[in-house]
Design a protein that fits this description.
alpha/beta; eight-stranded mixed barrel; about 25% strand; globular
C-alpha cells in the first residue's frame, strides 16, 4: 500500500520512524520527538524535497499522523510525543480530526506539535482558530525561535520554544533563552551534538535538551503486515 496522493517511490515499507528522546535539566525524560525517515535516502531532506516539489505537504502530514497513531499501541514511550507538521496542514479538517484522535489515544501522554513553514501560512485567522481548537483538546505547540520575529506568532497559542543548536550561532543562545523567559515559556535546545554544547546549554539554563550528546534515537518499526 502506498501513500495516499504521494508518488509510488514513497512506499510505506521504505518508511520508518525514530524517537529522539528529550530530557529536562536534571536528565529526566520529558518525551520523544517522533521523526519520519525514508530508508532509501540518507537524509530526510531528500524526502521533503519531493514532497515540496509536488506540493504534497498536507498529504504527507495526514499519513504521518495516521502511521504515528498506529505505533502507539506497540511502543510504550514515556512522556510527550512531539510531531513536526507543516502549519498549513492544520487548515484541513482531516488532519485536525486525526490529531485529536491521536491525543485521545495517547491518554496521559501529551501530544506536542512543532509547526514548520509558519511564515508560509496562507490563512492565519483560520490557523489561529484551528490551533485554539486543538489546544482545547489538550494538544500543545512548540514555536521555533526563528519564528518569534513573525508578528503573527504573538497571537498563536504556543507553550514551548525550540532552538536549533546547529543553526543558531552560539552568540545568540543566551538571547533566545532570555526571550523565552520573558515570555514565561520553557526552551528546548535540539541538535545538541557535543559535550561542550551540552555543558554550555545546561549552564545557560535551557529547560529541555535533545540530540546525540543527550541520548541516542530509538527505532520505531511498525508491523509491515498491517500495510
Amino acid at each position: 500500500m502506498m501513500h495516499l496522493g504521494l508518488p509510488a517511490i514513497l512506499n510505506k515499507t521504505e518508511l520508518r520512524f525514530i524517537a529522539q528522546p528529550i530530557l529536562d535539566q536534571q536528565g529526566g525524560l520529558f518525551g520523544h520527538e517522533i521523526l519520519l525517515r525514508f530508508k532509501h535516502f540518507e537524509s530526510p531532506a531528500a524526502l521533503l524535497k519531493i514532497v515540496r516539489h509536488l506540493d504534497l505537504r498536507p498529504d504527507l502530514d495526514l499519513d504521518v499522523c495516521q502511521q504515528a497513531a498506529e505505533l502507539i499501541p506497540f511502543h510504550n514511550l514515556e512522556g510527550c510525543w512531539n510531531l513536526n507538521l507543516f502549519a498549513n496542514s492544520l487548515l484541513l479538517d482531516e488532519v485536525r480530526h486525526q490529531l485529536i484522535a491521536m491525543a485521545d489515544q495517547l491518554g496521559p501522554h501529551q501530544l506536542l506539535l512543532d509547526l514548520l513553514e509558519l511564515d508560509k501560512t496562507t490563512d492565519m485567522p483560520h490557523l489561529r482558530k484551528a490551533m485554539a481548537l486543538l489546544h482545547d483538546a489538550g494538544i500543545q505547540f512548540a514555536l521555533d525561535v526563528e519564528d518569534m520575529e513573525n508578528p503573527c506568532s504573538q497571537l498563536l497559542p504556543f507553550q514551548l520554544l525550540r532552538m536549533d543548536v546547529r543553526r543558531t550561532p552560539r552568540a545568540l543562545w543566551e538571547h533566545w533563552l532570555e526571550e523565552a523567559h520573558t515570555r514565561d515559556l520553557p526552551l528546548l535546545a535540539y541538535r545538541v551534538e557535543s559535550e561542550q554544547q551540552l555543558l554550555t546549554l545546561t549552564e545557560l539554563g535551557a529547560d529541555y535538551l535533545q540530540g546525540y550528546a543527550v541520548r541516542e534515537s530509538v527505532p520505531l518499526e511498525p508491523e509491515l503486515s498491517r500495510f
